[in-house]
Amino acid sequence: MNKQDILDPKSWAERTFGTVQLHDMRRTRRAVHVSACLAENPLGSLPTQMHSWKEMKALYRLLNEPDVTFAELIQPHVQQTKEQANTSAVTLLVQDTTDIDLSHRHKISGVGQIGNERGRGFFVQTVLAVCPHPEGREVLGCLAQEPFVRVPAPKGEQRHQRLKREERETDVWMRQVLAIGTPDPGKIWVHVGDRGADMFPFFQTCQQTKTHFLVRAAQNRRIEHEDEEIAYSLMRTRSWLSQASRPFEIPARHGHQARETQLQMAFGQMTLLPPRNEPQASQDPMPVWVVRVWEEHAPEGEKPLEWVLLTSVPTTTMEQAWERVEWYKHRWLVEDYHQCLKSGCRIEERQLQQVDSLIRLLGFLSPLAIRLLQVRELARVDPERLASEVIDPLMLAVLAERSDQSPTTMTLSTFWIEIARLGGYLARASDGPPGWRTIWKGWLFLQTLLEGVQLAFHLRL
What share of the chain is helix, strand, coil (3-state, %, to 5)? Predict the structure, then answer.
């Protein structure tokens, strides 16, 4: 999707939902209209976004229609993302789970348990397609997504009984891999997961679909060893001496500021033995490459960083090992995406009375959250390019006048910083780059200014 389609709500809506199959062309036109209204003001309530009671009733009818499903609504976006993923040499498929907390909604029906026994809501499993570049990254979109309501465990169920279930909640990780399938010949897709993805069936499903995996280890697994003594993966990896070190930027995340540190590196190869208590796993050992990075000294109040990464992607050089670390660093993007769903699209605050309706609304909000991430990435790409080469002249002129800048010399970096200032960004020397929320607030404010300029021009005529 080009920059103009991302920035213009109507163009974005037409491209994202124009081919959606909802068993009636009138529903397709309604879906495009609804998505354009949502895109104009992602932070607004549904009545504010839809502008009138007539439009609200039409949206309610669409969200309560059994023939309209989440899978159908998101399918065009998924297909577009897949096509883009098959044009890149390497695509990272970053997967994670989040909960949609509806505990404050006492009258909503269809919720399940989240968190402790008192939490109520549902879960969303997302696979984000990210194209890594030497100069940054590109968020392509959602390659798969599955909302689900937790089924309560039988009362008194023991851990060994849970492991023997035919269906388990963690199976969603494998279902996503199977749903995505196999890349085109010559393309490399790498499923990236945190410690929740450290499952032998997950590794095997990646092999089955001819994709790769890069997972942060959580299990101290048995490994093949020349001696008769049993060896374990984490113990062996942590015995390796540092082979190199490098400065490393840890991005900001919830409750933690961005910071720079010095990481130690060690990497090698080992063969994992299948777990003895995992009925779904075959008995074939699995060769993997292991990369460990760790922080010897962390600032006060911060836990020293340590990643032990398991990957099926051949990693035989130091350069490749550092590349795997950079790939895993992109995993935080899926957390940003889920935050976009909650804070940017306000999915937990939508006043619908049934979880089924809210999940249908998720079909609109999921691509919209991708759009918010893409707007943020636009602000960080090619910062020294002249804004006049890609930005609408009237928009640039209004912002330049507002910020006392010259439209002919303003760079894209300056343009997006001034946009963020309109959204509340202070641009102090100690501040990091602006986030999607301040950029989006500033962008919406600029649209209001443009509308005022255009109205003033027509009134003068």
Answer: 45, 20, 35
